[in-house]
Write a structure and sequence with these properties.
Elements lengths: L2 E5 L2 E4 L4 E8 L6 E8 L6 E7 L4 E4 L7 E6 L4 E6 L8 E9 L18 E2 L3 E6 L1
Parallel strand pairs: 2-11
Antiparallel strand pairs: 1-3, 3-8, 4-5, 4-9, 5-6, 7-8, 9-10, 9-11
Length: 130
């Protein structure tokens, strides 16, 4: 069974940066999609960024485009989320998740449902102070 451990969260001032890591185990990065999601207090979970291993495509929610960058180290089964120019609205618990056996573009997941992502990590807290 797929398992994730997210790390890298913390407290940062507005305008600062953090890099989140998601280390996967229990599966290898064959054809799959990895997504970063976040949930702020009192709000629904929202998708942030996605990476598809089949074509190495990436995609981003409009709210983070130009500020966040998703990347991967396939050999290390790790996906990263570099977050720059953070603001208080980015405060949330950040989760990574996987859609196994996916072949296609990461663009599919922008604004799309989360149902296809079968396995989720426990999350890492990101807090941005004003």
């Amino acid at each position: 069974e797929a398992h994730f451990v997210e790390s890298g969260g913390g407290l940062v001032q507005a305008g600062g940066s953090l890099r989140l890591s998601c280390v996967a185990s229990g599966f290898t990065f064959g054809n799959c999609a990895i997504g970063w999601y976040r949930q702020a207090p009192g709000k629904e979970r929202e998708g942030v960024s996605w990476f598809s291993t089949s074509d190495s495509s990436t995609s981003y929610a409009d709210s983070v485009k130009g500020r966040f960058t998703i990347s991967s180290d396939i050999a290390e089964n790790t996906v990263y989320l570099q977050m720059n120019n953070l603001g208080p609205d980015d405060t949330a618990v950040y989760y990574c998740a996987v859609f196994l056996m996916y072949v296609g573009s990461a663009n599919l997941f922008v604004g799309g449902p989360e149902d296809e992502f079968e396995y989720w990590g426990r999350g890492t807290q990101v807090t941005v102070s004003a």
